[in-house]
Design a protein that fits this description.
The chain is built from eleven helices and eleven strands. The protein is α/β, with parallel strands linked by helices. Strands 8-7-9-10-11 form a five-stranded parallel β-sheet. Strand 9, helix 9 and strand 10 form a beta-alpha-beta unit. The longest helix has 13 residues.
Amino acid sequence: MDQEYLEHILEAVSSHDMEIEHALNELKNLPYEDIGYANIDEHRNLRTGQGEVIFAQGKTPEQTAGIVKRMMEHNRNILVTRADEKQYEAVKKVAPDATYVEIARIILIGQMPKPEKTKGPIAVVTAGTSDIPVAEEAAVTAQYFGNEVDRIYDVGVAGIHRLFGKMDRIKKAEVIIVVAGMEGALASVVAGLVSVPVVAVPTSVGYGASFGGLAALLSMLNSCANGVGVVNIDNGYGAACLASKIHIGK
């Protein structure tokens, strides 16, 4: 249940446009609703400022669509991460307006909010083109939470002049998400050039000795630059949640 919907209920009761009994019926599923195979956390947006997002990986198409259908009763906008085409087709049956961002593996139901223009954007920066799927998960999630996003891709340290060519845009950002695999050096380099927080995302991109992103993760954790926070390997969603809380406080 999003905050806007709850405010609508309270205002309706206050203006005598809704009976208290009706309002109680609407609120009865707080703080969560048990639908058998999932407990939908209807209270999360009120607690944290960021509503529940459906993690589709490991769920069947039917389970994913069932959760979406139930959430749509109280939520105008829904985000589904790590989704595949079969899950998207199932969701389309219950949410015809759903769209699928294939590279990010994200299903979107509803409209993206208009970003706040009072601050600079969140910059999402990648070391290479191979890091873009994780970066797009971060970028789309950040937009879903109401942030303006500037995408700056393929500017890794193997050709660091490419990064310097984009520094005017990078320095306009309020928060920077840096997505990198291999040795993960880009996060430390960027953080040493800017005055804003950097959220580092190691990716599983790389040859055998990268150990599926572990090398990049350790490199980012050992960054000698100040102001770097590190999330888990390939966790573009988590990076966007953290960056959004820094950027607009939710």
